[in-house]
Specification:
Layout: E1 2-5, H1 17-25, E2 28-31, H2 34-43, E3 50-52, H3 58-70, E4 75-78, H4 91-99, E5 104-107, H5 112-120, E6 127-132, H6 137-145, E7 153-158, H7 163-174, E8 178-183, E9 191-196, E10 209-213, H8 227-236, H9 241-252
Helix pairs in contact: 3-4, 6-7, 8-9
Length: 266
C-alpha cells in the first residue's frame, strides 16, 4: 500500500494522529526534500528509511517506488508542506499506481489554499484553484484569458519573487478587482493583505503566497452594441420607447435622459 500523507503547512502541531501512526508503521517514507522532512519526523520521533521523490525525478523515482510496492513494501509519500499532488509532486505517481493496479490511499491533512480562502473573506461558496501560473508571459496571458469571466473566487499560488509580476499579469487581463494575499499560514506572522489589483501590494513581498482574486461578472453582450442598436433591440422585442430607454439605461449604468437623443430620427 502507498499512502499519500498530508503534513503541516507551517505549525508542526497541525498533523493528524492517523498521519503520525501511518508514518511510524510504514517501511519507508518518500520525501520531496529529505533534509526538510527530517524536522517534522524528528519532532514526532519517527525514524524510517527515507527515499527522495521530487518533481525533477518523478518518473524515475516513481518506477522505483512501484517496484518496492510490488515487493510488499508499505510506503508513505510526503511533500515539504501540505497535501502531496496539490501543486506538489505525486500526480504522475497516482497514474502509475492505477496503471499497475496497486493500492493507494490518502491520509488527509492541511492544505494552504483552503485555509487562505477562509482567511481572505472572499466568496467561498464557489471557487477555482489554479495553482502556479506559467512563467512565460505569452503563456500566462493565454492561461488567464480562460478564467477571467468565471463568476467565482480564483486562487493562485505565488512565490515571493513572482508575486508582483503575477498581480500585474492578472490586472492586465482581468482589470481592477479586489484581491487578498495570504502568507505564513498557521505561523506566528500569518497575514492576509487586502488590496486592489490596480494598486498592488503595499508591503515588500516575503514568504510563499496564496493569492485570491474576486470572480468576474457574466458579460452582457448587449453592451457590445451601440446605444442606438441597444435601444432598437428592445423595441423590436415589443417594448415601447419609454420602457426600452429604461432597460438600456439600467444595463449601461447611465441616465435615461442621456439616451433620449438616440431615439430621435435623423
Amino acid at each position: 500500500m502507498l499512502y499519500f500523507v498530508g503534513t503541516p503547512i507551517g505549525n508542526l502541531k497541525d498533523i493528524s494522529l492517523r498521519a503520525i501512526s501511518v508514518l511510524k508503521e510504514v517501511d519507508e517514507i518518500a520525501c520531496e526534500d529529505t533534509r526538510h522532512s527530517l524536522g517534522l519526523l524528528n519532532a514526532y520521533e519517527i525514524k524510517k528509511p527515507l527515499f527522495s521523490y521530487h518533481k525533477f525525478n518523478e518518473k524515475e523515482a516513481g518506477e522505483k517506488l512501484i517496484e518496492k510496492l510490488k515487493n510488499g513494501k508499505n510506503i508513505a509519500l510526503i511533500t515539504d508542506a501540505g497535501m502531496p499532488v496539490i501543486s506538489d509532486p505525486g500526480n504522475i505517481l497516482v497514474n502509475m499506481l492505477i496503471e499497475n493496479g496497486l493500492e493507494f490511499t490518502v491520509i488527509p491533512g492541511a492544505c494552504a489554499f483552503v485555509s487562505a480562502l477562509i482567511l481572505s473573506g472572499l466568496d467561498s461558496s464557489r471557487f477555482c484553484f489554479l495553482g502556479f501560473m506559467p512563467q512565460k508571459s505569452s503563456e500566462r496571458k493565454d492561461f488567464l484569458e480562460k478564467y477571467k469571466n468565471l463568476d467565482m473566487t480564483l486562487i493562485f499560488y505565488s512565490a515571493p519573487h513572482d508575486i508582483k509580476k503575477d498581480i500585474e499579469s492578472i490586472y492586465k487581463v482581468f482589470g481592477d478587482r479586489k484581491a487578498v494575499a495570504v502568507k505564513e499560514i498557521t505561523k506566528l506572522h500569518e497575514s492576509a493583505e487586502h488590496f486592489s489589483l490596480a494598486n498592488g501590494l503595499t508591503k515588500e513581498p516575503k514568504g510563499e503566497y496564496v493569492l485570491l482574486v474576486e470572480g468576474g461578472k457574466e458579460q452582457n453582450l448587449n453592451l457590445n452594441l451601440t446605444e442606438k442598436e441597444h435601444i432598437e433591440l428592445y423595441i423590436k422585442q415589443g417594448h415601447d420607447k419609454k420602457e426600452a430607454l429604461k432597460l438600456v439605461a439600467k444595463e449601461r449604468g447611465v441616465s435615461k435622459s442621456s439616451l433620449y437623443k438616440y431615439t430621435i430620427e435623423d
